[in-house]
Amino acid sequence: HGMLSTFGIVSVLLLLPAPYAFLYLCFLFSRTTVRQTLRRFVLKCMRTNYSILDRFLELVETQPHKPFVYFKDETFTYREADVLSNKVARAFLQAGCVKEGDTVALFLGNQPMFLWLWLGLVKIGCAGALLNSNIRSKSLLHCLNCSGATTLVAAEELLDAVKEVLPHLHEQQITVFILADRCEITGVESFIDKMNQASSEPIPKELRSHLTMQSPAAYIYTSGTTGLPKAALITHSRVWTMSLLLPSSGVNSKDVIYDTLPLYHSTGLLVFTGAIERGIPVVLRSKFSASQFWDDCRKYNVTVIQYIGEIMRYLCNTPQKLSDKNHKVRLAIGNGIRADVWRDFVRRFGEIQIREFYGATEGNFALLNYSSKMGLLLLNLQMFFPYAVIKYDIDKEEPLRDSSGFCMEVDKGEPGLLVTEITAKAPFIGYVRDLNQTEKKKLHNVFKKGDLYFNTGDLLRIDEDNFMYFHDRVGDTFRWKGENVATAEVADILALADCVKEANVYGVKVPGQEGRAGMAAVTLRDGLKFDSTAVFKHVEDFLPSYARPRFMRIQRSLDITGTFKLIKTKVVEQGFNPNDITDPLYFLNEKEKNYTPLTPDVFDSVISGDIKI
């Protein structure tokens, strides 16, 4: 009964604006003392616009000397973080370029300064646009324009990327700071110098008195795997609901959490804000390292780790060591873990509780698995937050509708598109300054005239026990020989072949053929060559004919985002033409029961139809 209640609470908390989330908690809890405490907290939030910054400032007073951030060999306490963020805030104010309500773009990787900058901005009533440190040129300017930022702060190592767009920044009258002691470039100022000269005195609360729970706290961008990134508005209320994932998953005030994901992404930022809610230290790493992961956990006495599926797979792919279970990690929180990796991870690294969650930065629906069974458990949430898994036309890339024009739910076990109703309790704010992309995520007249649903873009299936499983992303699934092919499932199978390290699966157009033929760009395990015969036998054994990749491309590395999502746009555009691609290419040769080299002559025969695929 306790677990059932917990799941219902968690699912709702991750959806609601903070005050409503706590009111819902009050409604559910029957114990008088708990209910009274929560009611007082709700009233405090609503009356004073109590934000995650207010929680941080309370911790500065109550536990000033407790470690807040571990980074390399440095330790920053809650008091030191407060002092440094005060200096950031005053540096901005004294520069005269930032006023209350402004947005400042932060262009840097994982380092403590990222946290001081964001806290400092909130202290003066501003928001941070959290730019992906890997974007350049057109994407960089696009993201700046989306946020409406008037100031840019960039890491010293990203100076070349800034110089590339500097004339455009000056045209738009954007103030540019670099995180260096000095800067010789005209139109670029040193921020560190200004910080060093600034006072560390506390920032008057009056400077942020205009903030409410619905004011912008940050802008977080989608990964841009299928086009330019889109900016999601993160309000102070949303920050709270993101932060509640940690306590909902069982994190307590004695834990130490390890964050290797980019702070510019919601999955990385929520660890930071969630740690503030819990009052615990964060071990911050500039970049994920599979070889250093467990050494870091031992060094800092980490008890909670955060993951995305690829991180878990990378860890399982490292050479086994006698020390694999020698650590204090008890809890792993994240999303996207495959069933086979889940099993391998627990078997190899010990009985670590895995808390898989589902949600999107801009979405209005979230789930958390508190049980030991793989998947995401769906309870009867529809009375609060209606959702459905509906039939989807892969070719037309739109939901299937019946003769009345309404959508149809799939049967149990059948993959379909997850949609969630947009309501006052479960709003979809949309993408900043991008009405077209916002409207694309909305579905009208789904089950009745006038209703409105959020299109998650995720194809999922629900089993007989009401557990939900990820199937594929819309746009990644393609149709071949009259069948739908889920790229994620094919990639999982390919990765089990002995010589294959990673696989990026997608569909390519072939002249004269309906749909798209499967193609896989793969990397090979260290020291191994592409064993074409073995790979053919593997796909023949484990994949139906229509799902077997017709073409194989061997790459040194796969293009990925900062959160390890595979980028498919480029490889899809390049197709399978050996005249344009220098990587080794192979063709599924069913006559020879092998993947044979895709030469220009073979390519011409495929295009002309002489070779049937």
Automatic annotation (TrEMBL):
Question: Would you say which domain of life the source belongs to?
Answer: Eukaryota
Sorted alphabetically, the keyword list is: Cell membrane, Fatty acid metabolism, Ligase, Lipid metabolism, Lipid transport, Membrane, Nucleotide-binding, Transmembrane, Transmembrane helix, Transport
Instruction: List membrane-spanning regions.
Output: 6-30
Cite the InterPro entries for this sequence: AMP-bd_C (IPR025110), AMP-bd_C_sf (IPR045851), AMP-binding_CS (IPR020845), AMP-dep_synth/lig_dom (IPR000873), ANL_N_sf (IPR042099)
Q: What processes in GO biological process is this protein linked to? A: long-chain fatty acid import into cell
List its EC numbers.
Answer: 6.2.1.3
Which parts of the sequence belong to the AMP-dependent synthetase/ligase domain?
A: 60-367
Cytoplasm among the record's keywords? no
Q: Which PANTHER family match?
A: LONG-CHAIN FATTY ACID TRANSPORT PROTEIN, LONG-CHAIN FATTY ACID TRANSPORT PROTEIN 2
What name does UniProt use for this protein? long-chain-fatty-acid--CoA ligase
Tell me which species this is from: Oreochromis niloticus (Nile tilapia)
Name the gene: LOC100697594
